[in-house]
Amino acid sequence: MNSERLRSFYPHIGFVLVYILWGINLASLKIGGREWDSLVFNGLRFASMIPILWVYTYFYYRSRSLRMQIDPKDLLLICGLGILNAVGMEALLQYALQFSNSANGAVLGRGFMPVITVIFALIAGQVRLTWRILLGIPLALASVIIIVSGGPDGFHLGGDTFKGDILLVMRSVMGAIYLIGMNRLVVRYPLPLLISLEMTAGALSLLPFVLMRADGAYLAAISSTGWITLIYTSLLATALGFSIHNWSLSKLGPFKSSAYGYLLPITAAIAGYFFLHESISLNQVFGGVGVLAAMYLVQRDRAQAIKRKIEMSDHASEKA
Fold it and tell me: Domain EamA, which positions (predicted)?
């Protein structure tokens, strides 16, 4: 019983690790962004992983004597999700922030994603609406607003940011679609194959931007620090991060998974403190406490369901 209950926490631990990696990655992107063009950076980020991912996928299938095959409809879906991730989410976020600010990006571009996901999940009958969810999601969103509020670049809505804010909400919609689409695939195919196909599709979609904007002189001008940020983002934040993310997603489902996105402002603030020497304000402390409380409420439903499942299993064993 204790062993099964312990294993039930692994996906949650996985998501915490993912958002630690991604929080550090925001600091890495900020440092690398001083030298790299964003589209070139992301294009190289996806392309540099392809050989590693496919070699690993080949040996994964070979060691298990599996055939590398996928239904054509699912192949189109995973390739579409790869393009959606690389262009529709990453590139759209970069473009939207030209008309808005990073605080609005944290709230509308990421913070709205669990809200939209739960709406989709309710329509599909994948989640049951409880008082914990009704309280937890608004509390998490309000806490993120507290974290990013304050100062001239804090969260605000107005005519000066309207265009960017609409694009940021669209980015949250795409993020919800990505989670739901990937949730369908991770229970049917091994993760190495899905990650390899997704990253290959993303790399091909960004290849034209790399060819148009990067040449030998451009790449030679990048410092060693710039290359280190690319390596970290490619190997740890993307390859490792998305692998753990999608494995945990297969265990928790799209809605419970999306709720962990609220950890990002916290891990990003901590990473900024250590790597960029940024200060942590009282707003961020209070907002972080609110986020953690909200996540406890949202995840509590699953913990109760697992507990009931274990108790029923033990009861059935005793009868047998």
Answer: 13-148, 163-298
- Prediction pTM value: 0.74
Rounded to whole angstroms, the Cα distance separating 113 from 259 reads: 8
Residue carrying structure tokens 């605000």: 156
Chain CA centroid to CA 267, Å: 13
* For residue 297, pLDDT beyond 70: yes
Per-residue pLDDT of 19-69, as tens digits, reads 899 888 878 877 887 888 888 888 998 899 899 899 999 999 999 998 999
